[in-house]
Amino acid sequence: MRLDICPKCTHILSAPATSCPRCGVIFAKLAQADLHKKRTVTQPENDGVRQQLCHIKTGENSLVIGIKALFLLLLILYGFKLMLTSIQNFPDSGWWLHAVNLVFHEAGHLFFSPFGRFLQVLGGSLGQLIIPTMVIGVFLWQRDTFGAAVGTWWLGESFLDIAPYINDARAGQLILLGGVTGSEVEDYHDWEVLLSRLGMLQYDQTLARLSFGIGSLLMLVAMLWGSWLLWKGWQTRSRG
Questions:
Q1: Does residue 240 lie within any of the structural domains?
Q2: Residue with the larger pLDDT of the pair 30 and 107
Q3: Fewer CB within 10 A of the end CB, N or C, for the chain?
């Protein structure tokens, strides 16, 4: 802070001083006020995100928390089963969730069809990632952090579900919708089409492992997040 000019009234000071002889402002207090303003400007955004992710429903019924805990336990057990399954064997382990993802996969093809062949093909995989992401956003908007954690688990599982499809780009052995394989029908396997156009077909297995790794990490985050939320919720539960 310059002491030759008062920062409040711009009075020119003849010598260094601790306060302004015209308006009486104390420079040290003014500096503290400015620092406080800067902190209140920069902190709320970060604090808002943290509070949004860590929001706890206080006073929730013990039975409700117990039901959520049981559901989370099922997600944890099934999640580890999927994460510990090899990419090659994954289609046989996640069949029921794959059926759910398939609906949004095919809807993604339809939604992105006006944007050209490449996006139409990519839209299938995008569709089954966009929907869980939207679910997370809706739950966060409703301040339901546990629901957002479950949505994050689903997003992770969707990444896992895509990995075998990517991994099969060159081999073309997976049975696709319609009962045929990618090696039987030309220009039919999504990831063969995508990676061929990008000149990255030789990286199919590497990209598959990356997708599987991202999915596993998201599922682990969701499990820890959900567990923490229930633990904090149990501490503030309704005892009535």
A1: no
A2: 107
A3: C
Q: What is the total count of domains within the chain?
A: 2
Q: Which domain holds residue 23?
A: 1-53
* Total-model pTM: 0.79
Say yes or no: 158 and 221 in one domain: yes
Q: Which two tokens stand for residue 29?
A: 């207090």
Cα–Cα distance, 235 to 64 (Å, whole number)? 13
- Pair 217, 162 in one domain: yes
Q: What is the pLDDT of residues 160-182, one digit of tens each?
A: 999 999 999 999 998 888 888 88
What is the full DSSP assignment across 199-230? T-GGGHHHHHHHHHHHHHHHHHHHHHHHHHHH
Contact 128, 161 (CB under 8 A): yes
Q: According to the model, what pLDDT value does residue 14 have?
A: 67
Same-domain pairing of 131 and 12: no
Q: What is the pLDDT of residues 20-75, one digit of tens each?
A: 777 776 767 767 766 666 554 444 445 677 888 888 888 889 999 999 999 999 99
Please say if the pLDDT value at position 5 is more than 60. yes
Residue 80 and residue 49 share a domain: no
71 and 26 share one domain: no
pLDDT value at residue 88: 86
Tokens (6 digits) for 141: 């908007």
